[in-house]
Specification:
This protein is α/β, with parallel strands linked by helices. It has one domain: Rossmann fold (3-Layer(aba) Sandwich). Helices cover about 40% and strands about 10% of the residues. It has five helices and four strands, in the order βααβααβαβ. Strand 3, helix 5 and strand 4 form a beta-alpha-beta unit. Helix 3 crosses helix 4. The chain is globular.
Length: about 120
């Protein structure tokens, strides 16, 4: 058995939602659908919004459309990528997910585009 990897799940969250909380929640559920297969494969799934949204809330922001979000959302993913061992890039247009992939590649962290590409720990 190999050491479990912490895998950042990257994909659309706010993209294409025009700030609609219902659509953003749907996107978050889509990201979370990848968490169980990653966990079942012996790894640790991570989604930036799992960290960023509580930080944003504790800062007093009204939500992801709040101006403070620019100081929290992308920087959270950047910080997480200092600890992640890989990125699963889900389909869909997303500037943030594309930034995650670019950072991962700069750091030599593997990027996968399918759950099937991730090995079992």
């Amino acid at each position: 058995m190999t050491t479990p990897l912490m895998i950042l799940i990257a994909g659309p969250y706010a993209s294409g939602t025009d700030g609609d909380p219902t659509l953003m929640a749907r996107n978050l559920r889509r990201l979370e659908e990848a968490a169980w297969p990653i966990f079942r494969a012996g790894h640790i799934p991570m989604i930036g919004e799992w960290v960023a949204l509580p930080v944003l809330s504790s800062a007093g922001a009204s939500g992801p459309a709040d101006p403070l979000a620019a100081e929290v959302m992308y920087p959270t993913a950047q910080r997480l990528l200092q600890h992640c061992d890989g990125v699963l890039r889900l389909p869909g247009e997303s500037r943030g997910a594309d930034q995650d992939v670019a950072i991962a590649r700069e750091r030599g962290i593997p990027v996968w585009f399918s759950l099937d590409e991730i090995h079992t720990a």
